[in-house]
TrEMBL record:
Organism encoding this protein: Microvirga aerophila
Record family assignment: Belongs to the L-aspartate dehydrogenase family.
EC number per UniProt: 1.4.1.21
SMART domains tied to this protein: Semialdhyde_dh
Associated pathway: Cofactor biosynthesis; NAD(+) biosynthesis; iminoaspartate from L-aspartate (dehydrogenase route): step 1/1
Remarks, miscellaneous: The iminoaspartate product is unstable in aqueous solution and can decompose to oxaloacetate and ammonia.
Protein name per the record: L-aspartate dehydrogenase
Residues the record lists as binding NAD(+): 131, 199
PANTHER family: ASPARTATE DEHYDROGENASE DOMAIN-CONTAINING PROTEIN (PTHR31873:SF6), L-ASPARTATE DEHYDROGENASE-RELATED (PTHR31873)
Ranges for domain Semialdehyde dehydrogenase NAD-binding: 14-125
Amino acid sequence: MSTVLNAAAHPPLRVAVAGLGAVGQKIAQVLDEGLPGCKLAAVSANDRQRAEERLSHLKQRVPVVAIEELEPLADVVVECAPAQLLPTIAEPFLKAGKTVIVLSAGAILSHEALVEVAREHGGQIIVPTGALIGLDAVTAAAEGTIHSVRMITRKPVKGLVGAPYLVQNNIEIEHIREPIRVFNGTPREAAIGFPANLNVAVALSLAGIGPDRTTLEIWADPSLKRNTHRIEVDSDSASFSMSIENIPSDNPKTGRITALSVIACLRKMRAPLRVGS
Ligand SMILES: NC(=O)C1=CN([C@@H]2O[C@H](COP(=O)(O)OP(=O)(O)OC[C@H]3O[C@@H](n4cnc5c(N)ncnc54)[C@H](OP(=O)(O)O)[C@@H]3O)[C@@H](O)[C@H]2O)C=CC1
Ligand SMILES: O=C([O-])CC(=O)C(=O)O
């Protein structure tokens, strides 16, 4: 069975990767190895020379360009850069009616106008499941009535240290010996206090009942090696709970599965058989 749409009718999707860290490098590598229906078109990073070195083992030569130069080269951009760059990366693609896959989901809350730009120009923002689990079930439940969504995140100390919320509130976690709850609030608050750690909570809230009604606890746990997220949903169609234990990538804040989620998303965009909503 062919796993790609008719190639003559559908030329390969040109994919730009904005940010060449833990997530971007893996996506670039898989695209270079060959992802049916997709091709790596361009890459952007802060340090261009280091990016060239990181790409030197790839089979194809890929242009390394400034963020502003990505749009003409690609049909879709994967945003996997620091959160504050989201508008600079996304806006040109959305204005051209193209697709933006967003990993820094927390930044959408402070740049909601991007959704209007997408609506106006026929573009699309895709928030993949990323480091989380079960957003298909949550979006399905949201077609009915969801009563509550609760998320509990437990992270190793290395996955949280340096977060602005901890610094501003003088919460010292580097020497803890027992798990401590460092935050109890909403994904909207966590997006500000933990911009590089809790994109998953914002993604969950956008799938379900929004960033103000979803509740979130964050624990720092010195005995953990994996970022662990548990979700509990109660709705008029189903009650469910799910959890995932993420093996960290080269970036201890980022689970390995994050890049794989984007690759699965890209694969679905050109597949004749698509599984999962
Ligand atoms: N939605 C989800 O489930 C998840 C989301 N994330 C989020 O995804 C994003 C990427 O994560 P991760 O790969 O681990 O992050 P990294 O810190 O490993 O990589 C970030 C990359 O962005 C690049 N960058 C910095 N400034 C610029 C610039 N001005 N122009 C172009 N590139 C730039 C850096 O370049 P250089 O290497 O040259 O410094 C680096 O390659 C983060 O926002 C993270 O919070 C992470 C995990 C899960
Ligand atoms: O939410 C994030 O950005 C990252 C995360 O928790 C994980 O990788 O498990």
